[in-house]
Amino acid sequence: MLSLADLLAAGTMDLELAGYLCAAVNAGQSFLIGCVPGGGGKTTVMGALLNVTPADVVLAPADGLEAIEEARRNPSPRQCLICHEIGAGRYYAYLWGEEARAFFALTRAGHMVATNLHADTLEQCHAQLCGENGVAEEDFARVGVKLFLHVGGGWGNRARRVAAVRESAAGQAHSLLFRWLPGKDRFERLGESRLTTPAREAQCREFLGRLAARKACTTDAVRAAVLNELGT
Predict the structure, then answer these.
(1) How far apart are CA 43 and CA 143, in angstroms?
(2) Percent of the chain clearing pLDDT 90 (strictly above)
């Protein structure tokens, strides 16, 4: 599994964006990752972000309604429930319909949720979740970080970029916080976060710089560094 430092090295994001994502997820924000083409890097980015979740959050698969309802009834310990993909296929931890609605409602109990879906824009994401699946608007908004990926090139030479990051909170409109500029191949920040602080983002940027300097890092080593150096 790749880390945020690996994604920095690959150009999938820059340091400012990576620092923001690290700060937001480490603060306990739920997130989703959208990209229409298969092989776009959704699961890779999800894994990197899951590795910076708070120390007291337990990762668990959302592998059906029973597991979701169990988490809803038990807000402690806090969990991050993982849906591999919003989809109707009979695959492990794929959710649709009633299960998808219950999954996103877990944020009401204080749990984090993380998922992937085939959507390139906020509008496509909203149509699929709130339209096709009937997810409540307030539950959709409580997924604080929404990333959309771009993938270009052929199978042997794919270039992946975080094309846009939208931020939201219950009762607040979505804001476009980061976007990728294809012609310049760089990332542009459009405003200040409502979910993190500049000081925490700076701390996370410094942490990621140290992580990148170590180069080869296993998943366990990255997680240990998160727990020891970020301390959340």
Answers:
(1) 17
(2) 82
Q: How many CB atoms lie within 10 A of CB 134?
A: 11
Q: Which long-range contacts (CB under 8 A, 24 or more apart) does 126-135 make?
A: 128/86, 129/86, 129/100, 129/104, 133/86, 133/96, 133/97, 133/100, 133/101, 134/97, 134/101, 135/100, 135/101, 135/104
pLDDT of residue 155: 62
Domains recognised in the chain with CATH numbers: 4-226 (3.40.50.300)
d(CA 84, CA 106): 16
